[in-house]
Design a protein that fits this description.
The structure is a homodimer. By secondary structure, chain A is of the alpha+beta class. Chain A has one domain. In chain A, about 25% of the residues lie in helices and about 15% in strands. The first copy, chain A, has twelve helices and nine strands. In chain A, the strands form two sheets. In chain A, strands 5, 6, 7, 8 and 9 form a five-stranded antiparallel β-sheet that branches. In chain A, helix 4 runs antiparallel to helix 6. Chains A, B: GO terms for molecular function: peroxidase activity.
Chain lengths: ~400, ~400
């Protein structure tokens, strides 16, 4: 196992993939993958050292945790949920996860998969990660006990769920800073999964491109809202406590809640600036919590002053605001959000079909996610403009060591 | 007019938008836009000069030609075709194009549009360009004579055209290196167009992200094929001859052919490496024309040897290959390709729905594009794996000067 090196990203300026692979930080990268690199056609590792390419950056695959959870979110993601075929039994699951693990271990290191028919599309990993999730149906098929939280979320009053964006036995979260890399990896892995499972739904999302804004900038969603300010920081003790499970075959794993949230941008347009600030409880301009000082005097990471009141005695941060409703006094009710925007082709008289692929990771859905969502369901002014149209819960099993496969704690 | 500066890109290393705007290369950038920059919230021009951000890069809007034709293709594009509302007359067209030109002039320079409800999403232009195209219906509505080539292409035997990807009165080609920038610009402009026209179709495409591979690398499509090797180079005399029209209200403009080409990746997978090389007439590995020497001895930009034969006397570059069929002895039959990949959500048992948004620019569709397409329709082995499912032709009017608007040569 290569836990210590696992969280390290390799996108430091000046590093090339070759330098990384030959350097000291190789923990967790398979030797086979490293050798395979030199066989890859058009390898960008031949680029001059003076021009490091983001396409060459890799995130280690093997380790205590799967990549794609604590990995600084890449620009592009496709989330695919599959349904197992009727004849895929425990043995079939083992074979499927062996093959898909091998694909992911190679592709994430910029090496073509076995029998990859377009190997030239594999040579720019661009921080590719593949994260596997298991739905209740898969654990059942494995004839093992699922964590208590591995089930559909309770029905919320605001939900208008559509089956084509809900549920699923197997999740693939495939993310990279390059959309061609994502497309190739997704196709390659879905071809290899085809004998065992069929695509149930696909959701494509994006954030700012690599290099558009300064690293570490909190994302904005299509409402223009700064989204994710209160996230625990990967690498911290708090992050570990919030995210990683310690239970049985899930130890080192986590859970993923994937909710497709349609955002009614036309209706949002009818809300003025101040109304938007009040709904969110933060300034649209910079994401700072509302204060009694003028807009701009506060900063994004300021602690909200929940006791502050206006001159006429109303709370500065309204009781109906998203900030206040999402917040809990209970420190256990904390999640790690890793969302993507979506912007699909509109139908009818709309000019856009947009929203958020909400993805959160937490050790225990029931204890951490559901209480927050219950409060938001009861009252959150943002509900006026947002509608959950898809929902799914997956167990994200731990990472694996070289020679192992994702899910081996469940399937062996 | 700012013709000389028009083709210049500003993505040279070390430049920031502010440096660019204050520097000598400001030709074509409106003073209003430059001033507006300092009003933009969260302006990335405050980033330290040591960390130039690709998000800050701009492509000038005003000039003899519209941007987005000779602009080095950005990573993301959305092409939207609109149908004019019945009551949009010549006067309405003038108003519509005035408003949309103003939006594009601002947004491409990183400045929020007038009444932009998410101004924070406008501050990272990331080489945003907006290119307008006029379909036959729009020129008709303007009560002017269309160029003879401004009509649907002749029916080709390989076509399986679907109305939802064909035709249209107005084209917006919105492209940038950042997908959030594209989404915001598209929504902003479609809101402003809504009173005059309704969305007919939307196509989203991508290439390699900015920074994934070395600048100037020819794109690969989802077949893995190097795509666009024989393009004339922007800025050359050949490019000007191939692309820019000199006729009447179209002088300084061009034409766009937009064809949605579905690529059957499952069927392509059944073709071996050598079969792929033969179909294209180029090596998949590096895009070089086939030679009698071993794969790898040739380079992408080598001149094809059409007379070379194999040991048994067959042409090295097969007669049915795409390279040979697309090629013409007639130097007039030349186009400039600027395509995007698409990868949409599959339906049924497919694991992908992928293809190419083929976009070509040429001064005269009938003289340059149609003869090539006729030859490919008659015989091109690639037809086995590709199906045109959408087709549209647009007149791309010339650029405009500050104070003018796109289409002013047609509408005033």
């Amino acid at each position: 196992m290569a836990a210590p090196g696992k969280g390290a990203r390799t996108d430091r300026p000046g590093s090339t993939r070759r330098q990384f692979l030959l350097g000291g930080a190789v923990a967790g990268v398979g030797a086979a993958a490293a050798i395979g690199l030199d066989l890859a056609l058009d390898s960008p590792s031949t680029a001059p050292a003076s021009a490091p390419l983001n396409g060459d950056e890799t995130v280690p695959f093997f380790g205590a945790h799967q990549a794609g959870v604590d990995t600084d979110a890449q620009a592009h993601a496709v989330l695919v949920a599959l349904d197992l075929r009727d004849d895929t039994d425990r043995d079939g699951l083992r074979r499927m996860m062996g093959i898909l693990t091998d694909d992911a271990a190679r592709l994430t290191q910029g090496v073509a998969a076995l029998a990859d028919s377009e190997p030239e599309l594999a040579v720019s990993p661009a921080r590719l990660t593949v994260t596997f999730g298991f739905g209740p149906g898969l654990v059942d098929r494995a004839r093992r006990t699922a964590p208590a939280w591995l089930k559909p979320l309770p029905a919320f009053g605001i939900d208008r769920l559509r089956p084509e964006f809900s549920g699923g036995d197997l999740l693939l979260q495939i993310a990279a800073d390059d959309p061609l890399t994502v497309a190739h990896a997704a196709r390659m892995m879905l071809k290899d999964a085809r004998g065992f499972a069929a695509v149930r739904w696909t959701q494509r999302g994006f954030r700012r491109a690599h290099g558009t804004v300064k690293p570490g900038t909190t994302m904005r969603n299509l409402f223009g809202q700064v989204d994710g300010t209160t996230n625990p920081a990967p690498g911290t003790e708090e992050f570990a406590r919030v995210v990683w499970s310690e239970d049985g075959w899930m130890a080192g794993g986590t859970s993923a809640v994937v909710r497709r949230i349609h955002m009614d941008l036309d209706k949002w347009d009818r809300l003025d600036r101040s109304g938007r600030d009040q709904s969110v409880g933060r300034y649209m301009s910079n994401g700072a919590p509302l204060t009694s000082s003028p807009d701009g005097a506060a900063a994004e990471f300021d602690e909200p002053d929940l006791d502050a009141t206006t001159a006429v005695g109303f709370p500065v941060i309204p009781t109906f605001s998203h900030l206040r409703r999402a917040r809990s006094e209970d420190t256990a009710e904390k999640i790690f959000r890793r969302a993507y925007n979506y912007d699909d082709s509109p139908t009818g008289s709309e000019v856009s079909d947009s929203g958020l692929i909400f993805v959160s990771f937490q050790a225990d859905v029931d204890r951490q996610f559901t209480p927050i969502q219950r409060r938001l369901d009861e009252l959150d002014l943002l509900n006026e403009w947002t509608t959950p149209v898809g929902s799914a819960v997956f167990a994200i099993p731990p990472g694996c060591a070289e020679g192992g496969f994702i899910g081996d704690t469940l399937l062996t």
